[in-house]
Amino acid sequence: MPGKIAFQGELGAYGHQACVEARPEYEPLPCPTFEHAIEAVRKGDAELGMIAVENSTYGRVADVHHLLPESGLHIVDEAFVRVHINLLGVRGARLEDIRAAMSHTVLLGQCRGFLREHDIEPVTGADTAGSAAHVARTGDRSLGALASDLAARINDLAILARHIEDHDRNTTRFVIMAREPDFSRRGPAGMITAFIFRVRNIPAALFKAMGGFATNGVNMTKLESYMVDGQFQATQFYAEVEGHPDDRSVQLALEELDYFTDRLALMGVFPADRRRYERGRSTARD
């Protein structure tokens, strides 16, 4: 086995599922927070980190983009995980026995229709896998958990209802991070270049900075802004474009961007996952 891959959550979480699907040769290392997962990679306790960045139903994962630029790590891959949500209960329980269901608030929000239809009260838990473990410990037939098939197997729970999410394309995108970048690969579905930047304090700086991508024919698939250090006047951007920095078009666009920024840092260069371009996936292009 080549080493460990860190993820946020307990065994059975969707981050664990992402590790199993995308890097089955690595040993999953559960971490209580994204900060702990990143630190595990930085310190060498794990070779890779599986970090959730956005969900097609819920949107971007809060605070993650604040962590990435200061992590000292590099994005070396991406993974899309189809999030199938199940209602789990203790052995012997039936769907009609369930009066309340526990899970992370994000998953509760993705199953509103099912919970309303069956008159099940949502109960906020720390995370999905932890909620499944809690249900297993209590042995309460009236309490369910919203979690993955993997969480059901790990905690020996029964699946009382499968795939109860409100949206049938519910998908979470993860980035895989490592201590060293890898610019050598070329993916069959193309390459993605990720970077962060801050525009200079001049009129129309963002408009001018983006112009280089249009004039050089570079497709920008993601552009997100967030405040830095709680200051409204200090805005940082996270962006992803199709292509490799060695491509002449990307090179020219980044050179033009650099002219209008006071900070520009490459976050990673990685092969595009084919699922990024599946029809109807809202995480593919923002």
Automatic annotation (TrEMBL):
GO terms for biological process: L-phenylalanine biosynthetic process. Pathway: Amino-acid biosynthesis; L-phenylalanine biosynthesis; phenylpyruvate from prephenate: step 1/1. GO terms for cellular component: cytoplasm. The record marks T172 as: Essential for prephenate dehydratase activity. InterPro entries: ACT-like_dom_sf, Chor_mutase/pphenate_deHydtase, Preph_deHydtase. This is prephenate dehydratase. It catalyses: prephenate + H(+) = 3-phenylpyruvate + CO2 + H2O. Its EC number is 4.2.1.51.
